[in-house]
């Protein structure tokens, strides 16, 4: 895959009118085959593998989406924003080198591919002051992990905890657990077979706000599909979510939000097209 470098004036924050595009990855820009979301009998669009696991392609983007991304990367500050751990994020290759990226739900702010230690210190301070310690919530997660529905418990970069269920359908009503973790300053959300326990101060939006400050962005556009994306989407000047995923199941809406008409790979192409039009609408005329 050809790698697109950051163009002069894009991703650097230099100049007025800079647009920041904060985009979730999984189920927004990249998809496993079982989440392509195509209608029965529909032709599969041309796709490119963007993540490999054990030497085999695992996640894909459509070639149309990758072309749109490359163009957006040249004209705006495209910033991948993911709940993936740092190692999981580093497996993804979209064919470009973003100036900024956010991993571990805001726990890591990468600058030119390297985690920023200043941001790491800032997050450590916010977590120390704003919520119960990881060890306390991990103990609760490990108790949940003994139940029949739970397959495993994982700690993500010493920042948050998630459980993986044997199946999505087996996950029980966790409202009492959610209330317990909320009292500790944490949140609980489910996405597919995963149940996330995340500290309140650890948000994608906090990291996106820091990227916007550093990049001198005058406009922020965002795309995402999960509950953990909600603060980022709500705070953006304009936002878009696909017509699939956790937020779609909840019927979540907001005044600044557009919902795609398509699902899966086609929703990704559609939302990137929207982002492209929003960026172009704010660019000065060259006439």
UniProtKB/TrEMBL annotation:
InterPro entries: HAD-like_sf, HAD_sf, TPP-like. It comes from the Bacteria. This is Hydroxymethylpyrimidine pyrophosphatase.
